[in-house]
Automatic annotation (TrEMBL):
Residues 1-110 form the Response regulatory domain. The modification 4-aspartylphosphate is found at D38. Residues 139-204 form the HTH luxR-type domain. The keyword DNA-binding applies. It comes from the Bacteria. One of its GO terms (biological process) is phosphorelay signal transduction system. Coiled coil: none annotated. This is Response regulator transcription factor. GO terms for molecular function: DNA binding. It comes from Pseudoclavibacter terrae. Pfam families: GerE, Response_reg. The keyword Transcription regulation applies. Keywords: DNA-binding, Phosphoprotein, Transcription, Transcription regulation.
Length: 208
């Protein structure tokens, strides 16, 4: 993966870490745009490291962009991937993914677009992260704070569509889509596109 990233003219590898604690120190020191995080690592695992990175200074007291974290996983770690999304991860990539898939995911999350890997598959297959009693009895109440247009964009994003696909479906520009997605994330107190997908499935706003 290191060789693959370093071979790309538009990407720069700023460092590697052997475990979760080292990853936190490296991210806080170097302020990368994207982090590739293994779920399984010695000591502190990738899920805990993701949470601590996004809560750590210098990010905790800032309103600017935080690093986008891409989890590296296997097909048998769906529950762990879902936990990672709840803790702020933006996407996941399986370790047997093609080089093109990995690079596309890195570029997509950096651009604030939908990840290449379908987060909906994880959200559908995993057990809800909240108890049934905590799920809104009327699903629409979960997005009551959103404007009609923001609800439309939310539901399209919840299907895992990319910005270009949402723009075509809603007859708006990609720049407008990005603005609406940012507003949706802020109003629902979510941190990533992946969390929109998970939120939608857990609140029964999308099915299938």
């Amino acid at each position: 993966m290191r060789m693959l990233v370093e071979s790309q003219p538009d990407l720069e590898l700023i460092g590697t870490a052997a475990d979760g604690e080292e990853a936190i120190e490296l991210v806080v020191a170097e302020r990368p745009d994207v982090v590739l995080m293994d779920i399984r690592m010695p000591g502190l695992n990738g899920i805990a490291a993701t949470r601590r990175i996004l809560e750590a200074a210098p990010y905790a007291d800032e309103t600017g962009p935080r690093p986008r974290i891409v989890m590296l996983t296997t097909f048998r770690q769906d529950e762990a991937v879902l936990q990672a999304m709840h803790n702020g991860a933006s996407a996941y990539v399986t370790k047997d993914a093609t080089p093109e898939m990995l690079l596309d995911t890195i570029r997509a999350v950096h651009a604030g677009d939908a990840p290449a890997m379908p987060v909906g598959r994880i959200a559908r297959g995993a057990a809800p992260a909240v108890a049934p009693a905590e799920i809104a009895p009327r699903p629409d109440l979960a997005i009551a704070a959103l404007s009609p247009r923001e609800r439309e964009i939310f539901l399209l994003a919840a299907k895992g569509l990319r910005n270009s696909e949402i723009a075509a479906a809603a007859f708006v520009s990609e720049a407008t889509v990005k603005t609406h997605v940012r507003n949706v994330l802020a109003k629902l107190e979510l941190s990533s596109r992946a969390q929109i997908v998970v939120f939608a499935y857990e609140h029964r706003l999308v099915t299938g």
